[in-house]
Amino acid sequence: MISAVMPTYGRADIAFEKGEGPYLFSTEGVRYLDFTSGIAVNSLGHAHPRLVAALGAQAEKLWHTSNMFEIPGQQILAQRLVENTFADTVFFCNSGAEAMECGIKVVRSHFDAAGDPGRYRIICANQAFHGRTLATIAAGGQDKLLKGFAPAVDGFDHVGFGNLNETRAAIGDQTAALLIEPVQGEGGVRIAQEDYLQGLRQIADEYGLLLFFDEVQCGMGRTGKLFAHEWAGLTPDVMAVAKGIGGGFPVGACLTTGDAASGMVAGSHGSTYGGNPLAMAVANTVMDVMLEDGFLAHVRDMGARLLGGLETLVCAHPSILADARGRGLMVGLVCTGDPKALISKLRDNRLLTVLAGGNVVRLLPPLITQEAQIDEALAILDESCAQLGKGP
Known about the structure:
With 392 residues, this protein is an alpha/beta fold. Helices cover 36% and strands 19% of the residues. A hairpin with a 3-residue loop joins strand 16 (354-356) and strand 17. It is globular. The two termini are 35 Å apart.
């Protein structure tokens, strides 16, 4: 007999009733150090007082009107995103997958408006993750995501992550865009090197393609820059954002240049809930915090402390750990074997982490995490690796 909640998740047998900063408290009263951040969503931790105040104040005034009417919070947030990024215009939605779908439509509409509707194909990277809709699982291209949902949506070609030669070779008359995650999250916290991203920009310019970045997970301060592509000193034409921009409230956004959005006119796209007053009140407050002096520098400092400590643990536990990699507070710990054993042991020891591809344990602490929590996590990791090394 099927459960009332559709059984699409392999959940851990824990439920939480409250959170406070970087900590979660279970229904049994047990405190856990949360280095998942709801999979990079709770960027400012749990129950951040400024987010609570913003949401509460807005909830007492207006929740929803739909996009049939002006929503002042959208104008404010869009202008701030435009001022702090490459973008000229922003579409608001509710999730990363929706932001990606909007970006895919932007790409197709751009060439349709230019009189070249035959250019619609997007070159993507192997091991990518772009969402769970039919189009975004096709863009991701992973067999485990596509299984059971044939036929795959047409329009996506795949090449090696980091391989500019394969990218060039895949370009054809129908190619419209290059799509990449500047840091692959689900794919194992694999960082796109700066020369690779710069090469993609050059290729896009050479062939008249749009460069499309998926920063749903690696954006909004996660790597120590507001957006991860900033490390390479270049800009895309289209970018999908979500997760951390809402600090726990469902918010997504598709940012584009004016030229890229040339085909997006009234009626070409829409969302009933997207950018509603509640979402905008929270997201604008997230921006308030992230744009304050020192915020991103703090993320970089804490990331360096975490990565340095993990590198020490790799040396101390070579039978368990093979490597540590990452940028800012988006860090991957590569295991010598199945990482699920380490994730389970860490959870037993009250540290929550996230599984990723390639035998990787992801560490995604809230961006407000302090030195004390970094050191606490490292101590739990050290203890857990020692326990696993002793065997059953």
